[in-house]
């Protein structure tokens, strides 16, 4: 088996768990690749296998069976940009806080590796959103798992986002910005702006305004077969465009369209982990003392 690993710095208490992960992989003669920047960090804390190779974003990752994402949900979002069209399944190991996407805790790593070797897992297809922009804003990685956002670049003024659905005028949003979220992203930024939670397997986008000036404007669910285009204006000639955690300032003449990407992200789920269980536990549904009396 061949496994690629990316990650973010972790606390000292996790060092034994991370060392245990590499020892477990070495004991199974697993071929391991580590992202270049993460290997530099790990060498200060762990004893890595002698034959470990490195990779960068854009490398082919030929023959890789799984990618491990070590960190929080943001790390997993970053992992998807390494995988791209290859659709390598990603296992999220949570060393962060929320862990909505990265569902394997650090103490479950040995069991998770064992599950991979014995086929005790499922793979979920998650749709991606693609941004077509008339300039190379995202350096060729113009897709994301969670959402595409248009946001004001100055704190003092709103922007107006004229929005079109398959070429037909939808609305002009006077707001701090506008989010187009995938079903996966419906539990992220969009949720904090009042958007609905979508099941990951629904074929939809959610259009959610950020702090709209008109309070009767509400989030809208549309088909992900739609092409959504925008025209942006405001007192400032600039605004921000964002794909998940990657953002760039552009000028008002920029032409933007978003649509569903033609490939998916694949997330590895171990044993009893599923979306509905995660939804209840991470959003604390039902945690009211009145329900236990």
Q: How does this model look, in words?
A:
The protein has two domains: 154 residues, Probable inorganic polyphosphate/atp-NAD kinase, domain 1 (Rossmann fold); 132 residues, Tumour Suppressor Smad4 (Sandwich). It has six helices and 20 strands. The chain has a six-stranded parallel sheet with strand order 3-2-1-4-5-6. The protein has a six-stranded antiparallel sheet with strand order 9-8-19-16-11-12. The model has no long low-confidence stretch (mean pLDDT 91).
State the gist of this model.
With 293 residues, this protein is α+β, with helices and mostly antiparallel strands.
What's the CATH C level of the largest domain?
A: Alpha Beta
Shape: globular
Number of strands: 20
* Global mean pLDDT: 91
Q: What is the succession of H and E elements? A: EHEHEEHEEHEEEEEEEHEEEEEEEH
Extract low-pLDDT stretches.
none
Instruction: Give helix % range.
Output: 10-25%
Total of DSSP H or I helical runs spanning 4+ residues = 6
CATH topology of the largest domain: Rossmann fold
- Major beta sheet, specifics? 6 strands, parallel
User: Terminal Cα separation, in Å?
Assistant: 50 Å
Number of domains: 2
Sum up the structure in keywords.
293 residues, Rossmann fold, Tumour Suppressor Smad4, six-stranded antiparallel beta sheet, 20 strands, 37% strand, globular
């Amino acid at each position: 088996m061949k496994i690629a690993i990316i990650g973010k710095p972790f606390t000292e208490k996790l060092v034994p768990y991370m060392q245990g992960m590499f020892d477990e992989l070495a004991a199974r003669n697993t071929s391991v690749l580590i992202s270049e920047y993460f290997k530099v960090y790990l060498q200060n804390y762990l004893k890595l296998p002698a034959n470990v190779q490195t990779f960068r974003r854009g490398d082919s990752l030929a023959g890789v069976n799984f990618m491990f994402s070590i960190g929080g949900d943001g790390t997993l979002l970053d992992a998807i940009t390494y995988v791209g069209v290859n659709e390598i399944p990603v296992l999220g190991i949570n060393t962060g806080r929320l862990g909505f996407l990265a569902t394997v805790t650090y103490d479950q790593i040995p069991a998770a590796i064992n599950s991979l070797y014995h086929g005790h897992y499922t793979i979920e297809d998650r749709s991606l959103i693609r941004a077509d922009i008339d300039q190379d804003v995202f350096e060729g990685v113009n897709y994301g798992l969670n959402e595409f956002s248009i946001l004001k670049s100055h704190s003092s003024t709103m922007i107006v986002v004229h929005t079109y659905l398959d070429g037909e005028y939808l609305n002009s949003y006077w707001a701090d910005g506008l989010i187009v979220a995938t079903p996966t992203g419906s539990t992220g930024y969009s949720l904090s702006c009042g958007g609905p939670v979508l099941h990951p397997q629904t074929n939809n986008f959610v259009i959610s305004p950020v702090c709209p000036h008109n309070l009767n404007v509400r989030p809208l669910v549309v088909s992900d077969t739609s092409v959504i285009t925008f025209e942006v204006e405001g007192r400032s000639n600039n605004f921000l465009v964002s794909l998940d955690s990657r953002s760039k300032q552009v000028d008002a003449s920029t032409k933007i369209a978003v649509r569903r990407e033609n490939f998916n992200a694949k997330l590895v789920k171990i044993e009893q982990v599923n979306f509905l269980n995660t939804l209840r536990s991470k959003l604390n549904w039902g945690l009211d003392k009145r329900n236990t009396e």
